[in-house]
């Protein structure tokens, strides 16, 4: 069977079969392959808007995973979530069809773009990828974009440009980003996560170091100068480094911070002590200052003027499932956020608190994501969630994992209560919505938080809030 390394160039491929083609990452690659004139076949567990959109473009997609789906193609592509005993992978082996994982395919695609940018980090990848992509698009650089969420400006999660620029997320899970050959690498931060794969923080720092070491000497590394866990990265880089942040010794520094009533920040920016002017964010949250600075650093490197960036930065209003307003009923605002790590939840709660200040309260419906993450970071989750005025915890969203009986949502409820927080367990969607709605009054905010389908509670919350006499 061929090894992945034998595929020297994407242009050697005429046809592929993609397992899990409806996923956010795989579907983006499918669109690019179709644009390259490659015949795309694929399968997924269920029909979706994503699969229908691909089918409309000419992809042949089967629903369900079975051996008969696999035709005579040049390559089979699978995501990290697809095991070796998947019937389609087994059939490809019998047919002697070579296979590669999604990250390897993206690496091949990136080689077609001389100015490729990989956005890495434990938190903020999707927002930063979207923000940077918009800044380049508004500067008429026409980038190819792969983002892990729905971005209104490109009407989806992928845009195929006709320029040498590409912007993509780069995930550390399973060392996937080590298969990427970007010219510009971004590391937003490093934190404990994906502990079903990484042993500890040191292992995570090491893989980020490997990612940085691969950047070419003529490339660029942009890092968060305020993140202690990333401090080792400049020492392993062979390319120039730009440190962004609030610290005095950062290369691109924000100062004189101000925040409006919606929680959106404005700040002065200096690049190596040269004033670039005052910039404003169009999205709420102090944590987005670093995302904004990182995007500015790369856009400046690619030739966008400070004047143009001052004009366009406030135009970016975020993307779906990132502090996204779902509605307002009985003067209670319902907001959804994809946060599924304690640091992200803390940032989301702080942003929400700022949005309802000075008198409003913040309630949270939290759906934990994966058993391993919930177990490994139980104390940190409880610390963050205890800061809400009340928390409703649903069942854990398993994603790719089996339930080994080691952790339960009620364990998290107990830990929140130990810290003085108010929390209840509500396994059924109707119960979750009813509990949260019963807490809120006019001027408050209810957050649906998690990487699973917790946002689907919005209609139930609307029904409960409208029925309540506040």
UniProtKB/TrEMBL annotation:
One of its GO terms (cellular component) is cytoplasm. One of its GO terms (biological process) is cell wall organization. ATP binds at residues 121-127. The keyword Cell wall biogenesis/degradation applies. Residues 16-113 form the Mur ligase N-terminal catalytic domain. It is an enzyme of class 6 (ligase). GO terms for molecular function: ATP binding; UDP-N-acetylmuramate-L-alanine ligase activity. It catalyses: UDP-N-acetyl-alpha-D-muramate + L-alanine + ATP = UDP-N-acetyl-alpha-D-muramoyl-L-alanine + ADP + phosphate + H(+). Pathway: Cell wall biogenesis; peptidoglycan biosynthesis. Keywords: ATP-binding, Cell cycle, Cell division, Cell shape, Cell wall biogenesis/degradation, Cytoplasm, Ligase, Nucleotide-binding, Peptidoglycan synthesis. It is found in: Cytoplasm. It comes from the Bacteria. Residues 321-452 form the Mur ligase C-terminal domain. Its EC number is 6.3.2.8. The keyword Protein biosynthesis does not apply. Belongs to the MurCDEF family. Cell wall formation. HAMAP family: MurC (MF_00046). This is UDP-N-acetylmuramate--L-alanine ligase. The lineage of its organism: Bacteria, Bacillati, Bacillota, Clostridia, Peptostreptococcales. The gene is murC.
């Amino acid at each position: 069977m061929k090894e992945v390394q034998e595929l020297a160039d994407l242009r050697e491929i005429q046809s592929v079969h993609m397992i899990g083609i409806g996923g956010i990452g795989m579907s983006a690659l499918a669109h690019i392959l179709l644009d390259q004139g490659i015949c795309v076949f694929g399968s997924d567990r269920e029909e979706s808007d994503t699969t229908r959109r691909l089918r409309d473009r000419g992809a042949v997609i089967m629903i369900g995973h079975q051996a008969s789906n696999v035709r005579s193609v040049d390559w089979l592509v699978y995501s990290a979530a697809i095991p070796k005993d998947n019937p389609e992978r087994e059939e490809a082996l019998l047919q002697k069809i070579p296979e590669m994982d999604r990250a390897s395919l993206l690496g091949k695609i990136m080689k077609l773009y001389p100015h490729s940018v990989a956005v890495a980090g434990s938190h903020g990848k999707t927002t930063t990828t979207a923000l940077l992509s918009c800044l380049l698009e508004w500067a008429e650089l026409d980038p190819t974009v792969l983002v892990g969420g729905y971005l209104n400006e490109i009407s989806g999660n992928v845009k195929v440009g006709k320029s040498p620029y590409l912007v993509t997320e780069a995930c550390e899970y399973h060392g996937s980003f080590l298969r990427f050959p970007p010219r510009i690498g971004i590391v937003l931060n490093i934190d404990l996560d994906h502990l079903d794969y990484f042993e500890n923080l040191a292992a995570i720092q090491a893989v980020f170091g490997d990612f940085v070491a691969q950047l070419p000497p003529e490339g660029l590394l942009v890092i968060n100068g305020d993140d202690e866990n990333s401090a080792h990265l400049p020492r392993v880089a062979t390319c120039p480094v730009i440190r962004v942040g609030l610290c005095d010794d950062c290369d691109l520094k924000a100062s004189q911070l101000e925040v409006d009533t919606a929680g959106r920040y404005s700040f002065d920016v200096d690049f190596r002590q040269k004033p670039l002017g005052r910039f404003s964010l169009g999205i709420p949250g102090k944590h987005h200052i670093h995302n904004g600075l990182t995007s500015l650093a790369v856009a400046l490197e690619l030739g966008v003027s400070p004047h143009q960036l001052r004009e366009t930065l406030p135009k970016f209003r975020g993307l779906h499932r990132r502090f996204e307003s779902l509605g307002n009923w009985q003067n209670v605002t319902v907001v959804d956020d994809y946060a599924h790590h304690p640091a992200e939840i803390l940032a989301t709660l702080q942003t929400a608190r700022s949005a309802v200040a000075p008198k409003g309260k913040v309630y949270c419906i939290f759906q934990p994501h994966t058993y391993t993450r919930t177990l490994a970071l139980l104390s940190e989750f409880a610390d963050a969630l205890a800061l809400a005025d009340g928390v409703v915890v649903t069942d854990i969203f398993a994603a790719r994992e089996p339930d080994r009986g080691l952790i339960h949502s009620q364990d998290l409820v107990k830990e929140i209560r130990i810290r003085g927080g108010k929390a209840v367990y509500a396994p059924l969607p109707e119960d979750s919505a009813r509990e949260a709605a019963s807490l809120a009054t006019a001027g408050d905010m209810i957050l649906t938080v998690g990487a699973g389908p917790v946002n689907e509670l919005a209609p139930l919350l609307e029904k409960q809030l409208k029925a309540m006499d506040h």
